[in-house]
Amino acid sequence: MATKLNPYISFRDNAKEAAEFYHSVFGGELEINTFGDTPGMADTSEAELVMHASIVTPGGLTLFLADTPEHVEQSPGGGNIQISLSGDDEAELRGYFDGLSAGGTPGVPLEKVPWGDTFGMFTDKFGIAWMVNILGS
C-alpha cells in the first residue's frame, strides 16, 4: 500500500455532527467509534464522544475526525492549516465547494484566477478552512 496523507480534524464535542456533514458532501463510507465503544477509554460523561471517525470515498479521499476529551488542550481549526481539494473534475470540485461552504464564512469566491485555474477559499460551519483549486478550467 502506498503512503497516504490523511487530514485528521479534532473537535471538542461535535465530531459526530461534523462527520455526518462531511459524509453528506463527500459520500463514501462513514465509520464512527465512540469512547464508550472501547472499555476504559472515557468516563461516562464522554462515552458518546467520537474517539475516531473516518470517511473514505471511492475516489480515494480519506478524512479522519475525533472529539478531544475535556482534559486535553484543543485549538479548533488550528489557525495555521487549511485543507485543499484540487483536480480537474470541475463538477465534482464545485459540488464540494458548494456543499462544504454551506453555513460557513465566505472567503475567496470560486472563480478564474491569474494562474489559469479556478480557485476559492472559505471556512466551513465548524471553523475548518478549505481551499478548492480546479486545474486549468
From TrEMBL:
Regions annotated as coiled coil: none
Residue span(s) of domain Glyoxalase/fosfomycin resistance/dioxygenase: 5-132
Database matches in InterPro entries: Glyas_Bleomycin-R_OHBP_Dase (IPR029068), Glyas_Fos-R_dOase_dom (IPR004360), PhnB-like (IPR028973)
Protein's name in the database: PhnB protein
Organism: Aeromicrobium panaciterrae
Lineage: Bacteria, Bacillati, Actinomycetota, Actinomycetes, Propionibacteriales
